[in-house]
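Dear colleagues,

As part of the handover before I leave the project, I'm documenting each prediction I ran so the next person doesn't have to rerun anything. This entry is a single chain, and its sequence is reproduced below.
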Amino acid sequence: MSKKKSKKIQSRKKAQAAKQGNVKPVKSYSPPNDVSGRAEVSPALRSGIKDWVDKVKSFFIEVRVEFDKITWPSRKEAIALTTAVLAITFFFTAYLGIVDFSLTKLVSFLIY
């Protein structure tokens, strides 16, 4: 008998057994005895994670070093600079408001 015919016969027998309910039960899966409930991590993945953690650590160490290099202004300098920024902001706000108001009046005078 050829292989094709034997495969066809086997598949027919399986189909008939399934129809009749004579199907063999499937064995349940049981993990190997040496597994302690934890998945094994491959050495390459473990190495990649370790490298990533090392890079993050070195990044924060370098951030700390850069923060130590900053020359922070004194309280007096900070107040003076903040006052200057607020004064300049107020001046330009008033200036642009006056220019806007004037141009609006001029254009409305020319149109009407």
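Residues 72-112 form one domain. The two ends are 106 Å apart (CA to CA).

All the best with the project,
I.
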